[in-house]
Every structure is written in C-alpha cells, then in structure tokens.
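Researcher: Structure for this, please.
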Amino acid sequence: MIRIKELRTEMHKSLRDVANDLNISYSSLSKYERGDQQPSYETLIRIANYFNVTTDYLIGITNSKSSEYRTICDHLNLADEAIQKLKQLPLIIDKYNGISLSDILNFIIIQPEFEHLLKSILLYKIRTPADWCNMENFLNKDNTTPIPQHQIKEIDKLYIIQQFNNILSHVLEDEITTYNTVTKTKNDITISTRKETTSD
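Model: Predicted structure, token format:
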C-alpha cells in the first residue's frame, strides 16, 4: 500500500485519523502503509473510496486517481490535474473568430521545434555537477578566456528560451486552425465545435 501516506498527507490527515474514520485498527493501517501486510479486497475498496481514488492507483498500478482519466494517463503519462486543465481549454473561445485555448495548444504541440524544446529542457534538468564540469572543460579547452560554469548554465538557459521564442513567433504570426464554427446573426453569436456541426 505505497500510496496511503501520500494520500493522507494530501488530506492533512494523521494515520490515527484515517484509522478512526475507516474503523480500522491503527496497527493494521500502519502495516498497510509500510507494506508489511496486505488488506483484504473489501478493505482495499474502503480505503480507495475514502481517498476518492481507484484501487489501481492506491496499489500503484496506474498514476491516475480517476477511472475517467485512466486511459489518457497511462498512454501519455499525464497527471489527472493536467488532464483536467486540458479538458477546460476548449471552453475558453473567442466569440469572433472561434479560436479556443485548445486550438492554440494544438498549434504549439505540432510545431517541429516543440519536441526539441522539451528534450532541451530535459537535458538541462538531468545534468549532474559532473556533466557541467565536463562541459566547462570541453568549452574552455582552446579558449584563452575561460567561460565560468555559471555562465555556461545561463547560455544553456538562453538557448532554451530562444527555442520557446521561435515557437511563440509561429503562434503569433501564423494562422491557427480552429475546430469551432462561429455563426453570427443580427442579435446573437453561436459557436459550435466541428463535432457538433458534422452530420452523419
């Protein structure tokens, strides 16, 4: 039961609080949390319901707390909070041209530079002190004026920012495809999605 402590911490609950709420002995719940003992299936369901998560999340099979987001989470490794945010994006739509926040996000993701940007961020985040030291030695091998390590880090950051700015430039200057249709009448503006306007 690797996630009991994580979940009760999120709820600001002590182990004794949860044990009392679930009518489980403190000793048993403590053993479940440490992984020293496995609960019965019925107890597993009670604990999952208490924390409002799936049993698969509770025992570490999936990273999605919600069965609704399970498939997306397992395929894309996105947190439930991120999926919920993504679901809200299509709801914010400009009433004059039909462009939504999800249209903008879609445009950003399909840019050729987007994957490269993510990889650059990943490389920056996983570099160890030894990596930075090796990079410093390599760059300064033939330099009469050595570049200090902190400056190398700043240059790397600037490179990542430049990649982001290139994508942003496309977003601001290129035409964005929208999946919404805007219908204007004398007294009203109606916005419908492509799914709603497609007939069988």
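Researcher: Any notable elements?
Model: Residues 196-200 have pLDDT under 50 and may be disordered. The radius of gyration is 25 Å.
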